Fold:
Amino acid sequence: MRPRLLKPGNRLLVLPALTLVTLGAWAAWLGWDQRHDVQPDGSETGPYEAWQVIGLVLTLLAPVYWAASRRHIADAVLGTTAGLTVAAYYDWSDDASGLFVVGVGMVLVGSLIATTVASTVIAAATRESPDRPRGREEPLRR
Structure:
C-alpha cells in the first residue's frame, strides 16, 4: 500500500501536531523530575537520569519516522526542534544564573542536527523505487 500524501490543507497540521507531540513527550519523560540528586561526595547530578532522556529520544523517533517517511522532512525537523526548545526553555527558565539559555541553545542545535540526520536517513530508506512501488509484490517469474 502506498502512503497517501496529505492534502495541502492537512499538511499545515503536521508541523503543529509534531510540536505538540514533542511537548507532550518532554512532559511525560522529563517534566516530572525536577530534583537534583546529591552524591555522597557532595556533588549534584540531574535532574534527569539517562534512561529518561533515552526514553524521550526513542519516543520521538515514532513521529519523526511518520513524518519523514511521508516526505514531511522540514516539518519533522522544525516541529521536533521547536517542541524540544520550547519545553527546555519553559522547564529551565527558573534558573537565576541565566545559564539555562546556554542549555536551551544546545538543545536547539542538537535537536536540529539530530532530527535533520534522522529525517534524511528515514526518507532515503523509505523512498519508493521507480521500478517497484513500495507495498506491491511482483509475481515470481520463471
